[in-house]
Amino acid sequence: MDKVFASLGMSLDGFLAGPHAGPGNPFGDGGARLREWLVAAEDPARAGAYVMGRRTLDEGERLWSDPPPFRAPVFVLTTSARDALVREGTVFTYVTEGVHAALDRARAAAGGRDVRISGGAHTVRQYLNAGLVDELELHLVPVLLGSGVRLLDGVDPALRLAKARAVDAPDVTHLRYRIVR
Questions:
Q1: Which of 13, 29, 113, 135 has its CA 20 to 30 A from that of 19?
Q2: With contact defined as beta carbons under 8 Å apart, do 95 and 76 qualify?
Q3: Per-residue DSSP letters for 127-140?
Q4: Phi/psi class of residue 10: alpha, beta or left (left: φ > 0; alpha: ψ in -120 to 50)?
């Protein structure tokens, strides 16, 4: 059966983005260091579809190459309807009906493969709190950002995780947790 997973780079002090994150500075001050390992570690074949928040798409449009890195359908959580955005190899479909509707559409489009919840932090938290994530991958980078955007602020403390895998690399430790239900 397909799995729903989130996979995010995080600083040692728990931040997904550094201070002053926002439009034009999506990773915040110093936050780009959390993604330096990304090229070698990603497994693009795993996800058959993606879900992301509108702000993640808005910032990504400025940063991604053309074609974008997904090569699979992307469902964008938003409060304002918009026509689909078509880029080479990827269609971004806007979903206004909430996290369950976006996930249902992503699962249908994934063709039996996994669905990745791509972010940002607010979107991943919504899926964790709704009990819709099967695995949480954290790529722990040994940097300290001091402040910024935390992933787990506001996540239900009753969430139970079980370590499924840990892989150490020179500049990052890849941790995979299974959500215990």
A1: 135
A2: yes
A3: HHHTT--SEEEEEE
A4: beta
Read off the pLDDT of each residue in 64-93 and give the average, rounded to a whole number. 91
2-11, 24-33, 129-138: range with lowest mean pLDDT: 24-33
Question: Is 152 buried (19+), middle (13-18) or exposed (0-12) by CB count in 10 A?
Answer: middle
pLDDT at 43 over 70: no
Q: How far is CA 120 from CA 13, 27, 77, 89, 127, in A?
A: 18, 10, 11, 22, 11
Contact 119, 51 (CB under 8 A): no
User: Residue 59: what pLDDT?
Assistant: 82
